[in-house]
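As noted in the main text, all predictions were made from sequence alone. Below is one such record, for Vesicular glutamate transporter 1.
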Amino acid sequence: MQGLQAAKEKASGLFANKPLLFKNAQYENFHVEQKGYDQMYDGEDLETPPSPDRPPPRQIDKYVRPECPCLSARYTVALLACFGFSIMFGMRCNMSMAKLKMVGKHNESAGEHTETPFNWTVEVESSIDSSYFAGYLITQVPGGFFASMYPANKIFGAAIVASCLFNMAIPGAMSIGPAAVVMLKVAQGFVEGVTYPSCHGIWRVWAPPLERSRLATLAFCGTYAGIVIGMPLSGLLTDFISWQTPFYFYGVSGVIWYFAWLWLVFEKPSKHPSISGKELTYIEQSLGTAAQAAMPGFWNTPWKAFATSPPVYAIIVANFCRTWNFCLLVIFQSAYFSTRFNMKITESGFVGAIPHLIMTSLVPIGGMMADYLRKNNIMSTTNVRKLFNCGGFGLEAFFFVLTAYADNKYVATIELTLGVACSGFAISGYNVNHLDIAPRYASILMGLSNGIGTIAGFIVPIVIDYMTQDKENLEKAITEWRAVFLVGATVHFIGITFYAIFASGELQPWAEPTPPYESPMKSLDNETTFTQEPSAPLKGTDAPAYGAIAAPPPRPPAPQEHVPNNPFVSGAFYQAEPVQPPAQEYQEPSEDGTY
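Prediction:
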């Protein structure tokens, strides 16, 4: 024992006197490249595993992470897209509200008289109202291709900020003349025409299939929130400051939004530097390989399939009908209340915002209901789309008929509010249907349907201005506005019938790309020997030779006998002689060790 104790003391002294004994020991160092936010931490971040496509953090990301508290990355995209649409559609209210003061009229019943800095005729007003949609129509289909060839998030952001800059230039253009205003409105429509197709391009890579309705409707409800805020806000700014103020206010708001968009939104989940590993895996596994497929060009887009597909026509017709009534409300709702019930500008702005306020809350609720019905297999996707689209259109048309015969402003407000609010359910129908029938071509189909639907936006101002020319005679005005709402109800009933018959929520056979390695070959289903009929004897010429693999030699005929537990082949595929001797029962070895 004393010897053992002495050895311990000796060892302790040895290491105590040489504390740096292993300082110069050589070890092999393994270097693992870190990307994204892993570059900023020494330890491994289990929630954010490195991804080959994930870029290193930008300079600003080193100080503030690009994420919204309490929001996942995909819902941050949806929320900011909602704000973007809100600004875009709020700008559309600037002209309709400011025009009541810019080309003001004397309203004897309300005791209101506004100055008329611009003496515009009905034809000039119609030209300015329609000019936006002329530009909007041009870029719909090209916008779908741009969104498939370039990052859709950048196209969406650039379009809105450019429109905001044009919006701030409109007051100056008015001092030049109506032609300058028309040119700016055409430019606004031109850049905004790519927003809807590019938004579908964003959801192609960001939205899991069972969350498409929820995310898309959350983004699109910004269109109605923009009207809710835009109408009363434009009226207040016009009444209490000047008619130029709304244009400047929304222009500056759009520039501020654009910086937030650049900071928080990325092309796809794998390029987001701070997305959680759990969310990244969930999105990519939900989408599968379809989202990673190469996007189509102009010449390999199935245009013939588009032109012969009834579900595509159903979406186009629904878009046209919805655009007709949407433009009717956005452009002429304030004029209806002002002319029909002698409301002041501010009052008509607030009253006109009420229907869209209710609809803004119902649009995301409708999206969640649609996803719930699909996720729990209560209804098929086709029936869900038809239910929400036809139900929303039908209720709005019904309340339009009631509004046409309303004699009281409070009754008219209630009826119009209920009708417009119920139409919010239709957004979970036709407006996300592109992602159901052809997710790969969703942005192109959105541009196509929205482009044709925009023709309604081009026609509506001309038609309504022509139908409501007599604004001074109240009796004639009542008859004119009644006809306006009855026409709107009729348009919706046509859309209901067409969509109910031809719409579909199933993936179309032309919607999936053909893998490159299959294109030069015939289908393997008709060539491979393993899918031939059991009764057909195998011939040497039946086996195709691919590459360096030659066809097998002919086999001798064999009797047609049934092979147990194999419904695909018969005894003709096998040689008569066994490959190995049949199994024998266990035998005891003989004395010499043999069996």
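The CA atoms of residues 321 and 410 lie 27 Å apart. The chain has one domain: 73-502. These features were considered when defining construct boundaries for the mutagenesis experiments described in Section 2.9.
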